[in-house]
Specification:
The complex is a heterodimer of chains A (461) and B (65). By secondary structure, chain A is an alpha/beta fold. Chain A is built from 15 helices and eleven strands. Helix content of chain A is 38%, strand content 13%. Chain B is mainly α. Chain B has three helices and no strands. The chains are: A alpha/beta (461), B mainly alpha (65).
């Protein structure tokens, strides 16, 4: 099956050479959806007819010499918190079962303008929060490596659909790890860009100041191609950065000799000790990167617990504010997990929130100083392989601190890259974090790592 | 360790937030809401009155490399 699933870069080359038809590629993806999605639940809504029409239009345009670039004719999916004009956008919630937006989110609009083919809307945790819930209108997505296991979330359908070859790439959103988490547990690549690089306009909020939109795909090169279409200033998003956009794919393939990589050992070895399989993956990744010519250093930051507390307080309050009206009037229309998260907002005072935002400034300054002589820092994404889907704790926010939230707090670009497989045969990952707006560096190092390791050659059965 | 919340304060905060919970939900929530106080203790550092919050939206020049 793996030979039949090209990356975006491979598909684009073959489409340009007229060796692969977008219609053929779209049909192959749809066949996988029909064969697998009854078990994986990656999609909440299929747009099959539209997909085939878009694929035919792409094929005709390309044959006539009107290619729009590497995403033209590429099958994609959008997380179901991304507004899509005329297509249901339910946020996996009973509250929005009849919601059909009258405009596209900016990210949907940009991907459509790049010529992509929309296969459908992808499963998410309710309003991108909460966890794998069984009391929502649709069941949670399952991990293609083992369907008894969790995908992580909240971009759960995006992770599952890409790993299973049902789409070549998709949109994820990330408030405390919702791009990087599913990328890690599903064995794909996911990039949370710098805060402000990709517009949030038209995407349901989870926590305004922590929310990021970004690419998920099989590998770093495909994330670069997708980011190229997504990045850029948008006046519809008040946080949108107005900066020049580099050529992300052009930065790849040049080697990483002399790259300076700081490892935050205490995050994953002391503050939240990872399991043996993950530690082996991290150690082997560091050895690989050193072998590629990178200089490895040690980095010390505030304890992971401080970052987690800061991000969690901000996240709880901003979510409670965004959904306050429904929480007051329709609390029990939310699923149990989202409802529980919303209740927490009652217990954070205004002063607590602002102390967290002051702490955020200190932590961001600390990370900036620590990275002054570095290109990226490295740590874990998760402590272990994917747990069983029915063993994910409801109140995980109060258990061990997460490895991804620090970089939502800082707003720095962070990427999950597959670093092997654990004892259970499920993927493990490393997290690479760059400086603000230095996505090219993160992608270059991630791409070099993937090319030096065999993990991109293996797909779920 | 943060002081556990008493029943009156718990009920007051829920009422102020306008949340109507079942007794079972309240009982469960009581078992975890001390975690919030733990988070709040962690972000409360001696930083003086002049320490500014982070910008909610975007990066200031001082944040950039």
């Amino acid at each position: 099956m793996s030979a039949a699933i090209p990356t975006i870069a491979e598909a684009a080359r073959r489409i340009a050479a007229k060796d692969l038809s977008p219609v053929e590629l779209t049909r192959a993806c749809l066949e996988r959806v029909h064969a697998l999605d009854e078990r994986l639940h990656a999609f909440v809504h299929l747009t099959e007819e539209r997909a085939l029409a878009e694929a035919r239009a792409a094929e005709a345009a390309i044959m006539a010499g009107g290619s729009k670039g590497p995403l033209h004719g590429i099958p994609i999916g959008l997380k179901d918190i991304v507004d899509t004009k005329g297509i249901p956008t339910t946020c996996q919630s009973k509250l929005l079962q009849d919601n059909i937006p009258d405009a596209d989110a900016t990210c949907a609009e940009k991907l459509a303008a790049a010529g992509t083919v929309l296969i459908g809307k992808l499963t998410t945790h309710e309003f991108a929060d909460g966890g794998p819930s069984f009391d929502l209108p649709r069941p949670p997505a399952r991990n293609p490596w083992n369907a008894d296991h969790f995908t992580a979330g909240s971009s759960s359908g995006t992770g599952a659909a890409i790993a299973a070859g049902m789409i070549l790439c998709g949109i994820g959103t990330d408030t405390g790890g919702s791009i990087r988490g599913p990328a890690a547990l599903c064995g794909i690549a996911g990039l949370k860009p710098t805060y402000g690089l990709v517009s949030r306009a038209g995407v349901a909020p989870a926590a305004f100041s922590l929310d990021h939109i970004g690419p998920m795909a099989w590998n770093a090169e495909d994330c670069a191609l997708m980011l190229q279409a997504l990045a850029g200033h948008d006046p519809r998003d008040p946080a949108s950065a107005d900066r020049p956009i580099p050529n992300y794919a052009a930065a790849l393939g040049g080697g990483i000799e002399g790259a300076r990589i700081g490892v935050i050992h205490h995050f994953h070895e002391t503050d939240h000790k990872v399991g043996e399989g993950t530690q082996r993956g991290i150690d082997a990744a560091i050895a690989t990167l050193r072998g590629l010519g990178a200089e490895i250093r040690e980095v010390q930051l505030s304890p992971l617990q401080d970052w987690h507390a800061c991000g969690s307080l901000i996240s709880i309050v901003e979510r409670a504010a965004a959904y306050e009206e429904w929480a007051r009037t329709r609390l029990h229309d939310f699923g149990e997990r989202m409802r529980s998260r919303l209740m927490l907002g009652a217990f954070v005072s205004g002063v607590d929130y602002l102390q967290a935002v002051r702490r955020r400034r200190e932590l961001r300054a600390e990370l900036k100083a620590a990275m002054a002589e570095l290109d990226v820092v490295l740590t874990a994404v998760f402590a272990a392989e994917a747990p069983k889907i029915d063993a994910v704790p409801k109140w995980d926010v109060f258990q061990q601190p997460g490895f991804m939230m620090p970089f939502n707090v800082a707003g720095y670009p962070a990427m999950s890259v597959c670093a092997g497989f654990g004892a259970g045969g499920l993927p493990v990952a490393i997290q690479l974090v760059g400086k603000p707006f230095q996505e090219t560096t993160v992608l270059r190092i991630a791409d070099a790592f993937e090319r030096a390791t065999p993990f991109r050659d293996r797909r779920p059965n | 360790m943060p002081t556990p919340i008493d029943d009156a304060a718990f009920e007051y905060l829920l009422a102020r937030a306008g949340l109507t919970l079942t007794e079972a939900e309240k009982a469960e929530l009581k078992t975890v809401c001390d975690g919030i106080a733990g988070f709040a203790e962690r972000v409360r550092k001696p930083r003086g009155r002049m320490a500014e919050p982070a910008l909610t939206y975007g990066f200031a020049e001082e944040d950039l490399p």
